[in-house]
Design a protein that fits this description.
Elements lengths: L4 E3 L9 H13 L10 H21 L5 E5 L2 H9 L6 E3 L6 H14 L2 E3 L22 E5 L11 H11 L2 E5 L18 E5 L10 E5 L23 H8 L1 H14 L2 H14 L4 E2 L10 E4 L5 H9 L3 E5 L2 H5 L5 H5 L8 E3 L10 H15 L3
Parallel strand pairs: 1-11, 3-4, 3-5, 5-6, 6-7
Antiparallel strand pairs: 2-8, 7-8, 9-10, 10-12, 11-12
Length: about 375
Amino acid sequence: MCKIFNFDSVSGIKVFKKVKERVSFSLDRVAPTNPSSRHLLGQETASIIDSCTKDLTESIGKSFSNGVWTSSATECHHLIANSIKPKKIIVPRGSRLSLVNAAKILSTKYGSQFITPKFNQSNGFDFSVFENLNEDDVLFVEASSSELGFVHDLEKLSSAVKKSGVKVLIDISSSAGWLEIKNKVNFANWVSLSFFRFGGPSGVGFVALKNNDLKPIFSGVEQEGLRGGCLPLSLIEGASITFSVFKQEFESSIKNDWNEAISKLRFFLNNHLKVNEFLFERHLPHVLSSWANNIDLDAFRMNLSLEGIHIGTGPACISGAGKKSETLEDLNIPTRESLLISPDLDLKIEDLEYLYEKFEKAWKNAKII
């Protein structure tokens, strides 16, 4: 059995041991009980959820007074879309599909003007769009682009947002843990995230709120005024500690030369495979994104997968798997998709020679003659 390497961490990494232990502890502690129930178990469940909510909102920023647990960041986006009626809605090209689709629902339902500014390498999109926005409008945006590794200048974005008065939903799913987020997104009205990309459980999401102004997606719900049935208490408890656990694991990996391993792998890709790397002034630390001519990327991925090395598909959750990348199109790059390599925290220097050998072999077999 060959060793497995997760080089698609933008799609998720393994759940950390401490998070698993917290989930297991929660499963053993109380029955799955509706927090709206008036008996003691229901009150205990409600108290635990309140504590988890408080811990997470404090991890995100001091401006957020409350939060709502959901099944995913995607549900967060649709929950917000169901609660607002903007005149204009702005979603930069290259944003994740759930933001785009939530915006399309708004545009169809209310006739909101749907604006999709092109990607650029300085600000992520053209900030001149803010000149014609006000408090009746809304911006849906990600803190970073997992496809390219680009990270927004949040101070600059905050300044533009405050000047225009536009409402903001910012998704931090690709940034959380990997970058310092706390108190840097206080300009937003809503902050959404899921947890599986930085060592938390899947099947749970969260949206931090400044005001309790969300409306339920469907009628007939009572719990939190938004969703029916029992919340996944064990997943919520695991998710609530993910920030702190990831920080510990990240610091430990850096002490074990994770950064140096990333740098060496970057050097190999650029100098041996001759890829064209995307590298920005503000960049996700684990994302090595590039493009190359005359390579069948699907064949390259499959060749590596057969060796236990799993790399990403650039626009899969953005433009859609197999479709032309919008960001590459905006950058006038001829390929349909990027070569996305994003190692998890298990990358070790001692594995690099083995990886180089497998990469070179897979690359050679994927060349288009």
